[in-house]
Amino acid sequence: MPVTAYPEFPTNIPTHPLLVIDYELVKNGDEKEKDVLWKAATTLGFWYLKNHGAEEFVEDMFDMGAETMDLPMEEKMKFEQGDGGSSFGYKYAGANAVDASGEPDKIEFINIAKDDALSWPEQARRSYPSTVNNRMDSTIVPFVKKSVEINDMILNVFNTKLGLPEGTLNKLHSTEEYSASEARTIKAPKNLPIGRQALGAHTDFGSLSFLHNRLGGLQVLPPGVDEWQYVKPLPGHAICNVGDALALLSGGILHSNIHRVYPPPGAQAGFERWSQVFFTRPGNSVALRPLSDHSPAIAEAVSKLTEEQRNVVGPGVTAVDWFNRRIKNQRVKNRTGPETWLASRGTEQGRV
Question: Rounded to an integer, what distance in angstroms lies between the CA atom of residue 274 and that of residue 109?
Answer without folding.
Answer: 10
